[in-house]
């Protein structure tokens, strides 16, 4: 098995996959229906033949999550399929902040904007299994919301998340959307991982990894500077959060100052948060 892992990793490395050995282990574990940590127990056993077609698919830069049907996020085996946004591990930093803030403040009402497959809402809910929270998740895309609902049901069936997450369709670029939904100043915590990747016309395909292009375009890109949707997100968050409540919004690592500047009106305690590589990852603020 160790020799097979080396061969699979070599093929993936040659194809430009960023984490060839990790992906090789995950593909092998998927075929064997085992945990990656169990592979060393198999010693030099031959690899199952079923793994090699999967290695070729990954070498062609098909997302690993589409091959395995799972996207691990915050310890949860979330569903993954073509057409659904794949959660990124860096967003776990925003979830960490949210969970810590909820515990410290006793917050009970949480709003997740641009929820996509329900990533943030479901991850947060998993940390409060007694259903102490009321979580609402909003997206413009009906297909994404349907997938988020299936994701919720799948994780709930496994006992990994409680019930009570509500999914709602709304267009946040409509200035009155929060009021129409009846969400005005109704939430203690508002979270968002919006589309924010800058899209330079005619060039963005060369500036991002091929796997990113497998995600729905509208779930990833937001205009030439990545900020097209951000003013609407901040306005919606401002309208929905209670005075004294907090918001946190993920952004591109090139737009931290611009995103923080949008929070000057009506907020205090504005803060830039960084990831483990010291890149600006998300901002937070408290409503005055």
Shape: globular
Element order: H for helix, E for strand: HHHHEEHEHEHEHEHHHEHEE
Average pLDDT, to the nearest integer?
Answer: 93
From the 3D coordinates, which CATH architecture of the largest domain would you assign? 3-Layer(aba) Sandwich
> What is the CA-atom radius of gyration, in angstroms?
20 Å
Number of strands: 9
Strand composition percent: 15-25%
The profile of the biggest β sheet is:
7 strands, mixed
Strand order of the largest sheet: 5-4-3-6-7-9-8
Walk me through the structure.
The chain has 288 residues and is α/β, with parallel strands linked by helices. It has 2 domains: 1-60; 90-287, Vaccinia Virus protein VP39 (Rossmann fold, 3-Layer(aba) Sandwich). 38% of the residues lie in helices and 19% in strands. The chain contains 12 helices and 9 strands. The strands form 2 sheets. A 7-stranded mixed beta sheet has the order 5-4-3-6-7-9-8, sandwiched between helices. Strands 1-2 form a two-stranded antiparallel ribbon. Strand 3, helix 6 (119-126) and strand 4 form a beta-alpha-beta unit.
Concise structural overview:
With about 290 residues, the chain is an alpha/beta fold.
Which key phrases capture this entry?
single chain, alpha/beta, Rossmann fold, 2 domains, 7-stranded mixed beta sheet, globular
Write the layout of secondary structure elements.
Layout: H1 2-14, H2 20-32, H3 51-59, H4 64-68, E1 70-73, E2 76-79, H5 92-105, E3 109-113, H6 119-126, E4 134-139, H7 142-157, E5 165-169, H8 177-181, E6 187-192, H9 204-207, H10 217-220, H11 230-240, E7 241-250, H12 256-262, E8 267-274, E9 280-287
Parallel strand pairs: 3-4, 3-6, 4-5, 6-7
Antiparallel strand pairs: 1-2, 7-9, 8-9
Helix pairs in contact: 1-2, 1-3, 2-3
């Amino acid at each position: 098995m160790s020799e097979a892992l080396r061969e699979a990793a070599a093929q993936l490395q040659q194809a430009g996959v960023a984490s060839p050995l990790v992906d090789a282990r995950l593909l092998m574990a998927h075929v064997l229906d085992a945990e990656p940590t169990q592979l060393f127990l198999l010693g030099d056993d031959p690899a199952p033949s079923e793994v090699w077609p999967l290695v070729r698919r990954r070498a062609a830069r098909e997302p690993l999550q589409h091959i395995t049907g799972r996207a691990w996020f915050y310890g949860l085996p979330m569903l993954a399929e073509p057409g659904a946004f794949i959660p990124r591990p860096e967003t776990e930093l925003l979830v960490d902040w949210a969970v810590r803030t909820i515990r410290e403040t006793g917050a009970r009402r949480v709003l997740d904007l641009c929820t996509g497959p329900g990533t943030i809402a479901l991850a947060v809910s998993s940390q409060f299994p007694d259903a102490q929270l009321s979580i609402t998740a909003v997206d413009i895309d009906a297909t994404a919301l349907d997938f988020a609902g299936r994701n919720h049901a799948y994780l709930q069936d496994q006992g990994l998340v409680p019930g009570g997450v509500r999914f709602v369709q709304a267009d946040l670029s409509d200035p009155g959307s929060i009021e129409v939904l009846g969400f005005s100043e109704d939430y203690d915590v508002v979270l968002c991982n919006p589309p924010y990747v800058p899209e330079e016309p005619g060039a963005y395909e060369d500036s991002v990894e091929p796997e990113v292009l497998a995600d729905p375009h509208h779930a990833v890109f937001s205009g030439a500077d990545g900020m097209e949707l951000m003013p609407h997100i901040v306005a919606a968050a401002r309208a929905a959060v209670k005075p004294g409540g907090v918001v946190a919004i993920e952004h591109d690592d090139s737009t931290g100052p611009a995103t923080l500047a949008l929070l000057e009106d009506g907020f205090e305690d504005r803060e830039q948060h960084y990831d483990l590589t010291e890149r600006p990852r998300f901002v937070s603020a408290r409503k005055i």
